[in-house]
Amino acid sequence: MLKKENILLVDDDIDILELLQRHLKSMDYHTYKAVSVKEALYILKDTEIDLLVTDINMPEIDGLELVKYVAEHFPNMPKLVVTGFPSVEDASSVIKHGATDYLTKPFTKAELELAVKKALASKEAKETFKTPPVKPVATNGYSDMIGNSEAFQKVTEIIDRVKDNRATVLVRGESGTGKELVARSIHYSGKFSRAPFIAVNCGAIPENLLEAELFGYTKGAFTGANENRDGFFQAAHKGTIFLDEIGNAPLPVQNRLLRVLQEKEVTKIGSQKPEKLDVRVIAATNSDLEELIQKKTFREDLFYRLSVVTVDVPPLRERSSDIPLLVRKFMHKYGIEYKDRFVRIADGALEVLQRYSWPGNIRELENVVQRAVIMCDGTITLEHLPDQLKYKIDFPQKGFKTLQEKEKEYIQEVLLSTHGNKTKAAEILGINRKTLREKLK
Q1: How many C-beta neighbours within 10 Å does residue 208 have?
Q2: Quick one: which of 54, 65, 155, 179 could link to 171 by a disulfide (CB 3.0–4.6 Å)?
Q3: Domains in the chain: how many in total?
Q4: Both 115 and 189 in a single domain?
């Protein structure tokens, strides 16, 4: 009777595959065979595998790539490596990526059985984590911003210089880097922190309404204007107005905004009477404003008025040393919100988070941690992270193969279908056994 464990065998040598299968079948294990890493990935995708047994030296993509892939995408799957070309470097590398044993060809059936039992036993053993519980992250006076990296410190240095004055600030950075947090830090860490902070997303308000929402209007100024109404600028008097996605502001709004910055006053739509304002303007953009100026969609004089002080917020990939701090912050936040307790994170999972390039920046990181906290039972592990963060195998571009290479590839497929029976394979191929042996050399 076959045991419940499924073992995946990966080797480009058909004879070795057949030998491994015979040995393991005699031990009552069920096996799957693959002659390449690509074929192994197809099997892993659709089949529950309990143990991977793979060769290291294979054409195109070697077995070490497969070991790395399995270590992150199937973290609970033990991995046994077999090779005919042993080296200290290979051995240390596969052990580092979680291989339970390293067998050198040729090996005996007894050695294989011992290694397989050891590998499967490691799967049953409970994984222990030394990661201590996450403690609240100490605040540093910059609102919700945290970090120790040099790139982060450059931002906080500018915040310290502008927080107590009314200088207009332009915050630039990719989407998700925390531009609004920078604006809030400037406002709430300075002496005007008790005054209003009004945030306006210029890209979220319809173009025909944005002007009225920003500057206010008088009764009868347009259809539907049934009363006098203050705009966001009036609401921010004595405080700060934050204009996010300023690059999306239409030209009429840009014209009015330029006047506000020049004259320190605002005129409601439908009114002839300007009102004096004491307000600090912080604008933010993830667009290239200089490029928009060239396209005549953004006023050059407004750009210079907005960029009295410029803060360039670095993308997360340029401050990867801050990722553990940010992860702790989000684990604490969502651990309390969803679990009513602190959660932990395994070292391997944290390493993956630090390695990833984060095109969506801090916002993407927060979403990933939030989901992981919801899915975990107290400890975030690799299985709680999305696949796109984990190790990927870069297969070479498919080029043309020689006739000999294609012939050998086809012969291997036929041999695999006949379970290594060379006589039967020779019959299917229409050649004799001697010719088949020659072609396999």
Answers
A1: 10
A2: 179
A3: 3
A4: no
Structural domain of residue 409, as residue ranges? 403-440
Residue type, 124: E
| 173 lies in the same domain as 114 | no
Structure tokens at 112: 């294989």
**314: Cβ contacts below 8 Å, ≥ 6 apart:** 151, 152, 154, 155, 173, 177
120 and 165 belong to one structural domain: no
| CA angle, 295 then 300 then 301, to 5° | 160
β-pair type (169-172, 99-104): unpaired
Assign 3-class secondary structure to 163-187. Answer: CCCCCCEEEECCCCCCHHHHHHHHH
In one-letter notation, the amino acid at residue 228 is: N
Classify residue 396 as exposed, middle or buried by CB count within 10 Å of its CB (0-12, 13-18, 19+).
exposed
Distance CA 182, CA 143 (A): 8
120-177 tens-digit pLDDT: 887 665 444 444 444 444 455 576 789 999 999 999 999 999 999 999 999 999 999 9
Residue 196 lies in a domain: yes
Q: What is the value of pTM for the model shown?
A: 0.77
Q: What is the CATH number of the domain that holds 417?
A: 1.10.10
Measured CA to CA, the distance from residue 27 to residue 48 in angstroms comes to: 19
Residues 284 and 224 in one domain: yes
Residue ending a domain, among 313, 335, 352, is 313
Looking at the fold, whether 107 and 160 belong to one and the same domain comes out as no
Do 24 and 97 lie in one domain? The reply is yes
Q: For 6-39, write each residue's pLDDT tens digit.
A: 999 999 888 888 899 999 989 989 999 998 898 9
| Cβ contacts of 281 within 8 Å, gap of 6 or more | 168, 169, 240, 241, 243, 260, 261, 306
Rounded to 5 degrees, φ, ψ at 165 are -130, 175
Among residues 55, 67, 126, the alpha carbon closest in space to that of 98 is found at 67
- Look at 46 and 178; give whichever has higher pLDDT: 178
Q: pLDDT tens across 199-239, in order?
A: 999 989 988 889 889 998 888 777 777 888 889 999 999 99
Q: Which H/E stretch holds residue 55?
A: strand 51-55
